[in-house]
Amino acid sequence: MMPPSPLRLIAMFIGIVLANSASPPLSSVHARPPRRLHCIHGGMNPSDDGLVETAFPPSLPHPPPLSAIIDEAVWNASLQLGITVKMLPPVPPPEPSEDALRTAELPGKRHRVNPLAEFGYGDLSQAALREHRGWLLGQMEALVETCGMLEKELGGKEEGKMNKKDDNAAAAQTKPLSARGSRPLEWEFALSTASSPKSCLINIEAEEGTKVAGPKGTDKWVTFSQLNKYRRKDPQKLRDLWYGQYDVDFGPINELASTQALAVSAMLDSPVLIPSLVILSIAGALGVSAGALWAVLVRLLNSHLWWRSYGLWSRFLYVSAPFKILLGRWVYSSCRDVVKALADVVRDRLLDLESHLLQASLPVPPEETVPKTQRDKGQEGDQDDQGLEDEPEEEPPEESEDARDSQSSTEQRWWPGRDLWRRVRRQRGGGQREGEDAERDEQQMEAQEGGI
């Protein structure tokens, strides 16, 4: 007998593993193999030479599945080893539910099962089911029509494009609002004053003396400093500021800018220039103070305090190479964070300077171009103020002695110590008063004392 081939050995190994995992314990193993084994896909009959010939149904249009091939390999392995493997019986088909049997038609007709039986509609008639199905289709058509109308009104939202970053994460990128049928923006500038305050889409109301910008012919103003900050720090908010109706372009504003403003704008446009300037500034400062720093370093290395703490810093000096690499990486990241923080501070200062320079160059319409209603309101308010200033102040009528006596008696009735308190207060402040005021107070005090 020839030795088994490698493929047969592999099949035997797979059969043994599957037999141990899916079969009962080998305590029920018999000496002789059974004469017949039933599988899901057909029967197997052992032949005289010890092998198994699998008889699959000839009506199958495709090769037998993997489960049948594994069954055959298990049976061959059992024959080679002289053991019996009891395999699980085929899974019986699921029994139909009561709702399906209830809604099934008569045996003489075609067997039809109600697909809505499992949802609680098994007792409905065919006409009711047909009506319910038509209602569902109508709801679906109305939903599709509503989605189409919303998509048309919103400018045609583009489906999110999946940008695969790695094997386990993905990010959706949607089309910004500014790209949905926007039109060019024509700038209009104005000055917010006390007589004509301007609103702001960000700060609700613009500060007095600041310039605002917005689309021409509208009152959707935005403070120019906030507008420039959005332009530099968050362009997405700038694009969606006017709900994506306009294509924001700072070209006309840059044409009106001065040379200094253009230079500052060029520095802010470059993402590498400001960090490079910060690094060069730090290097220049270190180069200028190199002599003093070297003297301090030599003094520190020769000091008693440094060598007394040798046990502390020597640990970092004689560590292994991986730890030194990690320590160098930490130092590099710390220096990078410091440079980034300094660059952010410098960028914020330059941003404020750019906003100030650009705001100074913006053309503001003169007062004659202010609408007539606002100008008339301002003139009326000025005239009212002038009229109030020209009118003489009315002096309060002088009170008679009887009224003063009645008032003093009323005050004494409610608070007997009020005159004493007034006398002490006037004595303390009598030195500071001058002329007629002090004399009038003394006369009033004498009159009150005489009445008492």
Describe the structure.
Residues 1-19 form the signal peptide. Residues 381-402 have a biased composition (Acidic residues). Residues 157-177, 362-452 are annotated as: Disordered. With 452 residues, the chain is mainly α. Among the domains are: 6-81, no CATH class; 182-249. Helix content is 54%, strand content 8%. The chain is built from 17 helices and 12 strands. It has helices spanning 6-22, 66-81, 98-103, 126-153, 224-233, 235-239, 251-256, 259-269, 273-288, 290-301, 304-308, 310-317, 321-361, 372-390, 401-414, 418-429, 436-451, and strands at 37-38, 43-46, 52-55, 161-164, 170-173, 183-184, 187-191, 199-200, 204-205, 211-215, 222-223, 246-247. It has a 3-stranded antiparallel β-sheet with strand order 1-2-3, covered by helices on one side. Strands 7-10-11 form a 3-stranded antiparallel β-sheet. A two-stranded antiparallel sheet has the order 4-5. Helix 5 packs antiparallel against helix 13 (321-361) and helix 9 (273-288) packs across helix 13. The longest helix has 41 residues, at 321-361. It starts with 5 loop residues before the first helix and ends with a helix. Mean pLDDT is 68; it is low at 22-63, 156-181, 368-378, 385-392 and 408-416.
